[in-house]
Amino acid sequence: MTRRDFLTQSYLGLGGLALGHLMAAETVNPMLPKLQHLPAKAKRCIFLFLEGGVSQVDLFEYRPALQKFAGQQIPKPQGTVGEIATFSAAPNRLIPAPYKFSRHGQSGRWITELLPNLAEHVDDLAFVHGVKVDNNNHGPAVYHTLTGNMFPGSASVGAWVTYGLGSENQDLPGFIVLGDHRGAPIGGAGVWGNGFLPAAYQGTIFRPGDTPIVDLKPRPDMTPQRQRAELDLLRWFDQKHAAQRSDAGELEARIAAYELAFRMQIKAPELVNIQSESEATRKLYGLDDPVSEPFGRQCLLARRMVERGVRFVLALHGAGGDRWDDHGDIKGRLPKHCKEVDKPVAGLLQDLKARGLLEDTLVVWASEMGRTPFDNNLVTDKPGRDHNQYGLVVWMAGGDVKPGATFGQTDDFGLKSVDQPIPLRDVHATILRLLGLDQNRLTYLSAGRFKKLTDIGGRVITEMVA
Questions:
Q1: Contact yes or no for 453/160 (Cβ under 8 A)
Q2: What architecture does CATH give domain 41-210+280-464?
Q3: Where along the chain do its domains lie?
Q4: Among 162, 179, 312, 344, which one is least packed by beta carbons within 10 Å?
Q5: Does residue 369 contact residue 79 with C-beta atoms inside 8 Å?
Q6: How many CA atoms lie within 13 Å of 59's alpha carbon, on the beta-carbon side?
Q7: C-alpha closest to that of 263 among 338, 173, 340
Q8: Predicted TM-score of the model (pTM)
């Protein structure tokens, strides 16, 4: 047989060998970079999640009607169900925004006086108003916002993105979570979990301080050569064990995690060493103020991470009694919330833009819900606002986001959309599209069904895409 005949008759077999090699590489390292489904500038994402329910009518939606009809009962809204319908029908009083609004930028966007630094960047932002989540309680709403499903067990947004794109840096996790120093979010690790996706795609939590991961530093008597030898032996045992089983996804993820941890012992300490940043940069993020320093550190770390090729960074703000869950004394609580995030978020946007990173980094701001324009407590002299699953405001910046764009509009009181509610899955579909991922191609077979982040499918908000 000639060489030409051999190649002609066995090309499928050779193709199978090549495919097997590629599949083996995927098994060994599931975080290898993958091509985007669609052309897109954004290659990575920083997701800023503010837990507790940020009040849209106090930060981003100027509603003169709240001042005009202050203290009166809100007119019965149409098209609401559940708690919002009950709250609206029960005795209540409209509460005006306690702080002034003014227009900013060429877009003329209304922003509260409590966010003066963020207001300087409004022309880089695109807003979605009147987003609806599927539940009016924190736990299910947090899960819905961060996983696309209000029940535990689904894959988080970050897990989906790293599953679809892999990671550009093989020495750091592809999906990193920067937790609030005051405590864990409602839902715990499930909100950054892999769900039904392979375990390799779950988020890696980084703790505050110089030791972001427990046992990151090797023992004093452990040399790199000895540690490498131990890992090689452990890997040999694990691979032998996995070869005898059909479903070894978690074990394979653990093998990859050991290898990643070994490499991170060199890379992670340098990553979290923000002392190497200039004093001007540290001030830009608010690290010179004890109020803004914690979240400023998170935002600065987020920039350092995407700069080094981390695919998805989830920065959490709000925990325990310091969440944005202002049922009472919203006038007294809002200034502290806003001061904690205003300078850090503005600094992040400015720094990304100055370094040319905003062009290929998508920045998302979201909470799990909005707030009601009224208070059902008629006797307190320090009113607050209740949960509002119809009033979430989300903004995005970077990549192919259309600067200054607006989609959706709430009614005169800021309670709900004047048109059809915007389902959260539309926001998720848009995030994926801006990262070059097609929601209908980003699927995973689980329990006999091809699952996806947007479930039954969402509408890409093209009005926000440049």
A1: yes
A2: 3-Layer(aba) Sandwich (3.40)
A3: 41-210+280-464, 218-272
A4: 179
A5: no
A6: 31
A7: 173
A8: 0.88
